[in-house]
Amino acid sequence: MNILIAGAGSVGRSIARELLGRGHEITLVDKNPSAMRIASVADAEWLLADACEPTALQQANADEADVVVAASGDDKVNLVVSLLAKTEFGVPRIVARVNNPKNEWMFDDAWGVDVRVSTPRIMTALVEEAVSVGELVHLFTFHSSGAAMYELTLPATSPVIGSRVETLNLPVAVQLATIIRAAQPITPQPDDTLEAGDELLFIVAADLTTELSQLQELLAPEPTDLDPSDEEPTS
Fold first, then answer.
1. How far is residue 15's CA from residue 4's CA, in Å, rounded to a whole number?
2. In the listed set 117, 147, 181, which residue is the last one of a domain according to the structure?
3. What CATH number corresponds to the domain at position 39?
4. Residue 199 lies in a domain
5. Nearest to 177, CA basis, from 196, 149, 141
6. 193-197 own/partner pairs: CB under 8 Å, 24+ apart
7. Does residue 160 sit within a domain?
8. Within 13 Å and on the Cβ side, how many CA atoms surround 158?
C-alpha cells in the first residue's frame, strides 16, 4: 500500500519503519527541518512541508495514497490533516493519533477520521490488563461500529473454571473471541474447558453497561464481605 505519514517525529518515524518492513511504500511529511532525519528511515520518501496545507499534500501525492496517518504531536494538526486528506483528496482510510484524551471525542468521521489511536488510553489499558486478574479491562473501541474489546483473566476462584465454552451463559451481544493460554491464542470451540489464568477476549456491542456487569458477575463475581458461617454467634 501507499501510505502517507504526516508528522516525522519519533512516532511517525517508528510507524514508517514498521510499515516499510512489511513491504509498504511510505512518504513522510513534516514542516520542521529538525525532523528531517532522513538517514533514520532511508527507504521512505521525505517532504519538508506543512501537511496542513493542501498544496503540501498534493506535492506528497495524497490523491494516490491508500492510507494517511496523522501522527504529529499536535491534535489540531492531526484533525486538519485528516479532514483535508478525506475531503480534498478522497483518501480511503485515515488513521489519526490522539495526543490528549480530552480531545478524543473530536476524532470522528466529521473530521474525516476512520481510526483514532489514543496512546495514553492504550497505555492505560495495557497497564490495567497487566495487573488486573478477575476484572474486565476495556482494551479499545472499534471506531466505526462502536463495539469494544474487553479482556478478563480468570482467577482461580472463578465459578466457570472447568466449564465448557458451550455452557457459558453469556449476555446478549457479547461474544467470546479468543482464549489466550500459555501465551498461545486459542479459537474458542464449544467443548473447550476454561482454566484458571486463561485470558478471555470479548467483543461487546456498543453501550452495554448492564451486560458488562452481568459478564463480570458470571466470570468473577465479587466475594461477599462475610461468609454466614463466619458470623459471630449472638448471645
1. 11
2. 117
3. 3.40.50.720
4. yes
5. 149
6. 193/162, 193/163, 193/164, 193/165, 194/154, 194/158, 194/160, 194/161, 194/162, 194/163, 194/164, 194/165, 195/154, 195/161, 195/162, 196/154, 196/155, 196/156, 196/158, 196/161, 197/153, 197/154, 197/156
7. yes
8. 26
Residue with cell string 529538525? 34
Residue found by looking up cell 484524551 in the block:
101
Q: How many residues does the chain have?
A: 235
* Nine cell digits for residue 98: 490522539
Q: pLDDT tens-digit profile of 135-194?
A: 888 887 876 678 888 999 999 999 999 999 999 999 988 999 999 998 898 999 999 999
The pTM of the whole model exceeds 0.70? no
CA distance 24 to 15: 11
Q: pLDDT digits over 22-65, tens only?
A: 999 999 999 999 999 999 999 999 999 999 999 999 999 999 99
**In this structure, which amino acid lies at residue 81?**
V
Partnered with residue 185 across adjacent β-strands are 180
